[in-house]
Amino acid sequence: MSRSDNTHIFLTFALPFTRKMKQKLSEQEAIRREALASLRELDIDPYPAEGYDINASSREIKENFPSDNSLFQDVKLAGRIMGRRIMGSASFAEIQDESGRIQLYFNRDEICPGEDKTMYNTVFKRLLDIGDIIGVKGFVFTTKMGEITIHVKEFTILCKSLRPLPVVKEKDGRVYDAFTDPEQRYRHRYLDLIVNPEVREDFRRRAQLIRSMREFLLNRNYLEVETPVLQPIYGGAAAKPFKTYHNKLETTLYLRIANELYLKRLIVGGYDAVFEFAKDFRNEGMSRFHNPEFTQMELYVAYRDYEWMMGLVEEMIEKIVLDLHGTTSVKTGEHIIDFKRPWKRFTMYGAIEHFTGQDISEMDEGEMRAFAKREGVETDESMGRGKLIDEIFGEKCEPHLIQPTFITDYPVEMSPLAKKHREKPGLVERFEAICNGKEICNAFSELNDPVDQRARFEEQLELGRRGDPEAMVLDEDFLMAIETGMPPTAGLGIGIDRLAMILCNKPSIQDILFFPQMRPEKTGGSDEGKEEFIRAGVPEQWAGLLVQAGIPGIDALKSANPNKVFNQLCGLRKKLKLDIPPPGPEEVKDWIKGESQ
RNA sequence: GACUUGGUAGCUCAGCUGGUAGAGCACGUCCCUUUUAAGGAUGGGGUCCUGGGUUCGAGUCCCAGCCAGGUCACCA
Q1: In DSSP terms, which residues pair with A275 in a beta bridge?
Q2: Which residue is nearest to nucleotide B31 (CA to C1')?
Q3: Left (φ > 0), alpha (ψ -120 to 50) or beta: where does A146 sit?
Q4: What is the interface pTM, i.e. ipTM, of the complex?
Q5: For a FRET experiment, which of A94, A121, A168, A198 has its CA 20 to 30 Å from that of A184?
Q6: Which residues contact A181 (CB under 8 A, 6 or more apart)?
């Protein structure tokens, strides 16, 4: 009996497994489930419980076998089948383990030394597929074609895969049929990782970046800490938060937009240096530079100022880049960026003068607005002097700063948590490092004058009252901490994702986050929605169609236009050639109003 | 949010002025004892993103929507 001939048998057999399946299986999926059932009939567990001890990796073999052919004569390794070439009683396959791919050679009479050739003829040739995970035992040799290959004596099925994998071919460094659709890659990152090895490498590099930074900080005896993600008062940055609710406490909580105010409390508490790798959450627009959740490393060091912090940033980033690339130069997009110390430094006024030829430091608000207009920078009346400077800088300078550059001395209005400049009125002791036209870190001499801090919060409250949704909220407990007394402190925040983008040469933040936020796909509909409709009095035959019409649940139905719903149902009835009478328009209205109950 | 490009088989894509949905890989069957992306033969596989409209007829044209990419804006 051929495999396709007993499809119907398989279907009955496999029904319990498909309880939650929403769509019918494609032919290839059906064939795999059929193979799964056949394996079980042969008393082969497609998902064995015990571990599989390996003693080699594909990379070790490829690296060490050529120089010593006596090695790897009793190897055991495991991986996913990525390709198969079957010919009569001999076959080649390719498996991929974490370190790479290696070819396997199967010979029928060695896999099956006795009379029973089932393991080769049936299990290997017919019941295994690309995507399955197997373990193999055997010895390494080189084929006539010069390919390092494992001669398999024994194999074990470790996991049967039920879905076909995108098959990417490669020859002489050229890739064919690459799995490239970004939507598919991000939504199903596991597939991306399986078939695009360079993606696995990028994320390893990101992990190395974090490890290298942590190492640098721990070597200086800085304390790694953890502070709340759920915060009753959000603060430490200008951003819109995500809001949630704690049932038992009956209180609103926010996902943190920053951890600054908590880390400073720890400095008040007597630690001299604390840092945290923090996931922060900002409820704002998304772009290739912005994901709603992102990672930031924040660091606070007592008895230091922002001048000192610039030195630390240079040293730390230079070390990280060296750890990752073995050199201080990194290619990113069009540019080669050199992180070698020391980095260029500009004051904000200096940078504006450098790029526009105009010294604006002595201008008042009116002159500055006029200047901005001349330079083609958009302004509006609500912008004060500080905001204007920021706009001009963002428009005329930031995009041109490709090599790592410190910009220092920001307007006080933009920086309610930074200490006033020791010499220059109206400015604060703050710097950002700009690289590849984007900010990669933000730091200041932290404001520890409690009276000044309270006044700055008051200004923010005023902004909030005027409707600025990102104005900071007054955090009374934080002020109490500052009133208790915080030593002079230098603080730093580094955007890990943006740094990773540069160091991994990725133009989009989605490429250095495993699971970037995506808009949920509209599914074909769920059983839950259908159940809801039935409970609400919709006849079963129509309940399913409502889901199919893109109305996921009862709430959506309640707010839908009855005429449109009626039209959609009639359309679907016609399209699917259903042999049931159309619903009356009144009937549909009743469902929506919920009067049919 | 604006503009723009795209959505067709498991994957990568073609499909002309509107006329019975195609290729390669993958998959099934048969043949074949060492292949280098692809051995040979043969066969199956589609909600052409969704819904309307125009038309004798829509993958194709029009409208609306959904999802994604890019650019810009907003935003750090």
Answers
A1: A224, A299
A2: A88
A3: left
A4: 0.84
A5: A94
A6: none
